[in-house]
Prior knowledge:
Helix content: over 70%
Distance between the termini: 45 Å
Largest sheet: none
Strand content: under 5%
Order of helices and strands: HHHHHHHHHHHH
Number of strands: 0
Structural class: mainly alpha
Amino acid sequence: SDQAKIISLGALGSVLRAMKSHSMSLSVQRWGCVALWHLSQDSSTRESVAIQGGLAYVLDAMRAFPAVAELQHACCGALHNLAAIETNQVRLAGMGSIQLVIKAMQAHRQNPKVQHVACGVLNNLAQNEDNEASISTLGGAALIQEAMEVYPKDTALVEDCRAALDSLSARITNKKK
């Protein structure tokens, strides 16, 4: 695949080095996260990003530029893919990702792109029981519900929000049994 070829040519390492070296450059951070979003389509790349410190770079970008919706969108897009594997779900939660995603949703309520990918991140993170509890405690379910209500005509957003709520409610239902 083109993605595998790009990675074999060293793109992942180059992106991560750029993000590390230019941590206060909005442009580098944004495009670095966009690149990670598109490169992290498979489990081995997701694991490689984590091993090479990429999870921290994405979260650091979110912390450095909380008011920039385009950056938060790119970061959440990368996190959505990176959180698709169990090991990264645990790693990301331990690094404060749940709080950062919730802050992004709160700060960018009027941005459907941020809301959409943030719901996807929370859905993936909620596959881990401890993360589910944190998402619920921090008000994530209410924000997901709010996104659905604010953007009812955005079918893809509503579907991803429903999936996230289903992940959260499935754990609650299973705990009661």
